[in-house]
Specification:
Length: 285
């Protein structure tokens, strides 16, 4: 029986790695970590537990990543340190230097749960999972910006010889200290449906999406600021997103999606990471 393989953003989520917020989160310097404030640990843990319940209700097996990672506040965002492919885990190399060390730790947790290591990025490559967007099992869009570089794109091509890699240059945004991933601008939620923030979406990538038949739900600027583009599909057309994005939620529902929301004042709004960031799909399909 398959226990790993997640070359999709939308196929039913069967196994997912998560990390419960710990003292490193509440001890983080908001300026150093580019947070909106100091997270309240008890509230963060309650919000995270509620999100986990939503995942379990959708049938996902939870892999708890509880390795000691003192001082690594962003380690709750398990989407970024690795990519899980049909061949196993590709260990990435974080673009945010403060996060270095998360990669091998998460890979070891997954290895203990039956996921072999298929390859590793090596210096000077940098890449984060938030820049790696599956458009299908054989197509991976790679955002190129402050967190993922061209060297990583070349190394990923070698590690994924049967996958078409599409480079997507990213805008400057708020600069190198801020987190602007490709998935800050787009989430794929069904076979032909995505939510996007069009003003920052590169024109060639927009044209590629429309050529491939995607219907695009535009996230307005005020909901881009509250992670309206960060939508996790647990199955085609079945989504989890942050509460408080009514226009995007209504548009998704009008397009035929089932949408559930979670409260994320601490784990999302304070720390800059939504439902996708907080989850590393290990098995889909």
């Amino acid at each position: 029986m398959r226990v790993y393989g997640a070359q999709s953003m939308i196929e039913p989520l069967r196994r997912v790695a998560i990390r419960r917020p710990d003292a490193s989160l509440s001890a983080a310097d908001p300026v150093e970590w580019h947070y909106a404030g100091t997270p309240d640990l008890a509230a963060a843990q309650a919000e995270h537990a509620a999100l986990v319940r939503l995942l379990e209700e959708d049938g996902a097996e939870i892999i708890s990543h509880d390795a000691p990672l003192d001082g690594l506040a962003d380690a709750i965002f398990t989407h970024d340190p690795v990519l899980v492919t049909d061949a196993g885990t590709i260990v990435l190399r974080m673009g945010k230097e403060l996060r270095r060390g998360e990669e091998e730790a998460l890979a070891a947790t997954l290895e203990a749960h039956g996921v072999p290591i298929a390859g590793r990025l090596t210096e000077p490559a940098i890449a984060e999972g938030g820049d790696l967007l599956w458009l299908g099992p054989d197509t991976l869009a790679v955002g190129l910006g402050f967190r993922t570089n061209g060297v990583a794109l070349d190394q990923l091509r070698s590690l994924l010889p049967d996958v078409e890699l599409i480079p997507v240059p990213l805008p400057y945004g708020q600069g190198a200290a801020a987190c602007l991933h490709l998935m800050s601008l787009i989430s794929v939620v069904d076979h032909d449906l995505a939510v996007v923030h069009l003003p920052l979406l590169p024109v060639p990538f927009y044209e590629l999406l429309t050529e491939r038949g995607y219907r695009l739900i535009e996230v307005p600027p005020e909901e881009m600021a509250t992670h309206g583009t960060n939508v996790l599909a647990t199955a085609p057309g079945r989504c989890i997103m942050l509460e408080g994005n009514p226009r995007t939620q209504a548009a998704l529902e009008a397009a035929g999606c089932t949408v559930r929301t979670y409260r994320g004042n601490e784990i999302t709004l304070t720390c800059e990471g939504g439902a996708t960031c907080l989850t590393r799909p290990v098995l889909r399909g």
